[in-house]
Amino acid sequence: MAVELQYPFIPDFLQQAKRAIATALIINVFLASGCILGPARAEGVFLPAFSDPHRRAEPPAQGKQSLRFLTSDDYPPFAFVDPEGALAGFNVEVARAICEQLQASCTIQPRHWETLLDALDAKEGDALIASIKPAAAEGRAIFTEPYYFTPARFVAVADSQALDVRPEGLADKKIGVEAGGAHEAFLRRFFPRAVVIPFDSREKMMRAVLEKQVDAGFGDAISLSQWMNETPGCAFVGGAWLEPAYFGEGVGVAVRPDDQETRGKLNWALQKLDESGKLAELYLKYFPVSIY
């Protein structure tokens, strides 16, 4: 099986299961210490299960298969062009792993972000693996089961004493957050006794955390982990918050609304990759500061 990269330009979990996971996290926050800056270790790193063992995807029909993936190339660590000019990233490697699992001949082609759904409509590709959420697709695509989630997390100065990130533990604590979004709304709803300090940018919020103007920050774990990769001094505190009403129900691969066959193949491949540990392996490679 060969996976070919082409460059037009170079420079349900069941709904019940999803809700159960979210509810468990809302009620019982993980009280583990913050993540260590540096290479991630498989031991002690929490990774959610992405496939529902009670919902078995049907294996695809045997025979020669081909898939054309579309992605972006400017969203590290999910998709980017490396110094050698090759397309790389978490999404790219997940697509490649899907192809290997299906024993399919595949291409992975980058497009500008704003043209991805148009390209799918025009049948320039069979699937989008570009971190597009269902709400952003506006009915122009259907999605596989998720292969990663977009949790929220608390972050604090790495050498500070561990915070108790339960609602009662953060009473009267100053918590920074980007103003006006789901993370601020979540804080105000579930941490009513915390002193919420809104900032007009993630950069300003994180600078306030580093300078100890606030006791902790709260935001999108993916963005915060990238920030911490580039700026030492902070660490996650407690565990991941996965409330779907605020933070979405995970990110899947998008296909055209009438293409249930491809969706079924992709679901089967993703389930097998989750069960084999391959998804966890790729996650640990691209997220040295664990987002979960």
From TrEMBL:
PANTHER family named among the record's database cross-references: L-CYSTINE-BINDING PROTEIN TCYJ (PTHR35936:SF35), MEMBRANE-BOUND LYTIC MUREIN TRANSGLYCOSYLASE F (PTHR35936)
Gene3D superfamilies for the chain: Periplasmic binding protein-like II
Keywords tagged on the record: Membrane, Signal, Transmembrane, Transmembrane helix
Origin species: Rhodoblastus acidophilus (Rhodopseudomonas acidophila)
Keyword Membrane recorded: yes
Ligase as UniProt keyword: no
Transmembrane segments: 20-40
Lineage of the organism: Bacteria, Pseudomonadati, Pseudomonadota, Alphaproteobacteria, Hyphomicrobiales
The protein, known as: Transporter substrate-binding domain-containing protein
